[in-house]
């Protein structure tokens, strides 16, 4: 035993300079093999320090191990290879599930440790992720983030550092810079993690570059760090899909940090999570961020919590948090109303000495049957400033869809407020116009039906975020059927779950319907990621009824909006079959209002049928005659409210879709 202890001490003090193993450090020669050989030599010796100093070391992925300290001296830079082909899947992985169960569908990373003990990354040097090679600037009139991923998920680098199933992890001093369109650190199912004095400096206009992402970890401390990211700066989750068994995330302590995130500075929980408890965040300065603190359970991706309990978030403390320049909400705590979101409880959340200034006040919303419980606010202040004080929010990352122009505390229970104030500066009169979120857009055309626009309510933003995460899980995969539309599509999944389940049987189906959406809202969604990264076999478009509701609506303008949407579908999904339906019959009786809408819809449908048949690339499928009775109006047995199909009505639609795109053999 004494001999073993002496051996461990000698190994821990051993230094393995990568130059001794052939590394050049000239920034041009790939030093991957030399660095990996140094690591392997240290592992064979029982551990040691891998030293990078005096140079820029260009490298592909490196696999660390037990007893390994990767030390990047202040004179050194570890530069990720610009060759995306270098970042292949890791093999022989013990502590992660198959890649198809992982975020982004790959286990690839720049630095990797699997089941290692006493593994660390230290030093005052820089890990340069070469992020500019992984993204490209968007074209045209963009909003949100300026850049998008250059490669599909099957090839892109999903994360920089991945530690899976490790113990006694240390990250100290090192700077992670120039992140790609992927996470910085994914610390997954690890115990006893220390992050101290580290920096993460990402381009805030790059997508999906989370900073510190702790999933199912225990006994974590983060202190004295500076983090700037385009996506979430610090994430605490308990998503066990990537693990063989359900794991809790608990005892995570974050203190003395400065955070800047164009998404969420602090995020606790997300869809499909299990238990998160006993965490604290204190003495933190947050600035220039979309959302300060986010505790959110969006609509669940089908299959994420099957045969598992719901999410429980409890005993979380936020103390001494100072926020400035918040472009969405200082606090966003929301449970999506959909039945697929499984929740045990979100309870015992304490905010003390929290002071925030930004464009909106907190957004707090549980759901019927699942109220947010026992939140306390002590010595807090929230100040809402005008848009003029913080311009440019539409091009400030996710703020463009996360910002909801109202404050709410709904479906809550046992909330307490002590010395807490909420103050809102006045806005110009136009700000009170409920349609302004849709009608005011930068660089508008004269045809609103073709101009991208957001709906602008909290449930719409929540649904967009939940679809975004679902699409993220589908990256690089094939989707059999995609339905794009408004509430007629949306409510199939929401109000008729049994009918929807039958449609999904044997096929992957993506529901991109949003209640109330007009063509401009669908165009905005289509150009902000909802059609990207996966391969659709068939895309079905049914749109326009909400454009034609107004008495002065122009059927031709509505048709142009639908055409623009179809063209975007073709651009984003060039190999997909595109099916265009006419606008469904609207109105159950021949009252003048319904007759007016029906007339406008009929004119739009005639123009769309002509467009589809002349294009040669769009299949026109019209079964409206099966949705109406002999008098030409929709019977209640098929459309109970004269607009949305019943079980019988959706069964007719499902029959048509089965003919168009049969479920593949499994």
Number of domains: 3
**Largest sheet data:** 23 strands, parallel
Mean of residue pLDDT values: 86
At the fourth level of CATH, the homologous superfamily of the largest domain is SGNH hydrolase
Euclidean distance between termini CA atoms: 57 Å
Sequence stretches where pLDDT stays below 50 over 5 or more residues: 1-11, 428-446
What oligomeric state best describes the polypeptide chains here?
single chain
Share of β-strand residues: 25-35%
Residues in helix, %: 10-25%
Top CATH class of the largest domain: Alpha Beta
C-alpha-based Rg, rounded: 27 Å
Count of separate DSSP helical elements: 11
Global outline: globular
CATH architecture of the largest domain: 3-Layer(aba) Sandwich
Describe this protein with a few key phrases.
single chain, 23-stranded parallel beta sheet, 11-stranded parallel beta sheet, Rossmann fold, 666 residues, 11 helices, disordered N terminus, alpha/beta, Pectate Lyase C-like
Strand and helix map with partners:
Blueprint (H helix, E strand, L loop, with lengths): L1 H12 L1 E3 L8 E5 L1 H13 L3 E5 L2 E5 L2 E2 L4 E5 L3 E5 L30 E4 L2 E6 L3 E3 L6 E3 L9 E3 L9 E6 L2 E6 L2 E3 L5 E6 L2 E6 L2 E3 L10 E4 L2 E6 L2 E4 L4 E4 L11 E13 L2 E5 L6 E15 L1 E7 L13 E16 L4 E5 L7 E16 L4 E3 L6 E7 L2 E4 L14 H4 L5 E3 L1 E2 L2 E3 L2 E4 L11 H4 L18 H16 L4 E8 L1 H9 L1 H8 L4 E5 L5 H8 L8 E8 L12 H18 L4 E4 L11 H24 L2 E3 L26 H14 L6
Parallel strand pairs: 1-3, 2-4, 3-6, 4-7, 5-8, 6-9, 7-10, 8-13, 9-14, 10-15, 13-16, 14-17, 15-18, 16-19, 17-20, 18-21, 19-22, 20-23, 21-23, 22-24, 23-25, 24-26, 25-27, 26-28, 27-29, 28-30, 29-31, 29-32, 30-33, 31-34, 31-35, 32-36, 37-38, 37-39, 39-40, 40-41
Antiparallel strand pairs: 11-12
Helix pairs in contact: 6-7, 8-9, 9-10
